[in-house]
Amino acid sequence: MRQTFLPDQPFSRHLRKTRKALGCACLVLAFGAGLRAAEPAPKKVKITAARIWELWPKVKVSPSDPYQLRGPDVQSALNDLRKKSKGALRVEFEGRSAEGRPLPLAQWGQGDLKILLWSQMHGDEPTATAALLDLLHFLVSQPKHKLVRQLQERLQLFFIPMLNPDGAERTRRRNAQGIDINRDALTLTTPEGRFLKEIRDRYRPEIGFNLHNQDRRTSAGETRKPVMISLLAVAYEPGGGNNLGRVRSKKICSLIYEALGPYCYGGMARYDDSFNVRAFGDRMSAWGTYTVLIESGWPGKGGEEFLVRVNFLALLKALQALADGSVQDANPAVYDALPENQGGLIFSRIFRGITVWNGNAAGPFTTDVGLNFNESFDGKKQRQERGAVADVGDLSVFAGEKEVAAGGWVVSPSDLKEGSPQGEIVPGARTLYFYRRKTPAAGVEFSNLEPAGRLLQGAWEESP
Asked: Which residue ranges form the domains of the chain, and what is each CATH number?
């Protein structure tokens, strides 16, 4: 049963309605999965999601821009934390990337429940890497905190904060071999993939957290609202069955959704749960390490630091629930009711009702123009946005991260001060010139236009 996500509906009221509507579904799912009666739960440490949210700025050690992180930065941070931990944090650099960079493994906790958290197996997806450094700093810097003590007693955590340092060095998805590590779970061609599999086989964790970034233009279902956080209780077999491990993964996702609701309401969705035999998350679940996927997407007005903070809250709240047993109280049907990720409904920027003036015989006409921007990085780790035309025509059923009511605008494929338009505005075009009419009701003659901005070889420039 799906719930409608209304932007003006307070999250707490929506959550009460969802729980009530899905209560019966939860009982059916639990019975069908063969859930056994839970053991007596340990005493709970009452740390609310709001308190964890407010805790993050006090323990943050990650950079304001996670994309600046490189392998040596992670190594240095882990070594510093190890020294401060007085033996509580163990750090090893036994793995090596394709180019010989160290692959760190950090271990913390003395409990029976083993959990593996790995991040940045795609080199251009660093948000959770920053969150893991902040989480580790909290665990190390506040050993007397009630929550830290409970986590240490109940859990044994294994962290691989940056699995693909070669990709991170290039700020690209693939490793130095040009292979997507997350599609290497079968053949284990990459040394990074072999390292991850070796760690899983050596310690045999019951639970995994696979941490990624996704396209920020992903929509929560058909709402056309960008997804901030996408969750997945990763399937362990084709067809997406429900056994004890996967039901627990669904419960983890449900409690993460509830914890993040006040901060990401309307911006959470469920990732595609098709079983991928080559993907590590799916294989991990099949091997017995039931995995939760967390994908960070649209940062909203808070920027990248907002997503780091959201990941910190999601992970710490999940670990808390696993340590105190409250994960058993979560409703897996809340997860099942999440809208699914849907791509292709959001553009980076839409100019609505703009006059297009091409260099052909068609003449000026009024329509919508959608642009998409993707980030690129120079050799100095500077982030740059490069865009191109994604579509031209009726875009009324789409949304834009930024929308411009461009009824008084004109766009041309060339600079009109040099004469009549040259070329055509079609998908893939990377150079456009935008103008505003001085007199809106007048024509498109150059004398009636003033520059409004331009897209020059993909780079956007505002006019003064």
From this structure: 11-342 (3.40.630.10), 346-462 (2.30.40.10)
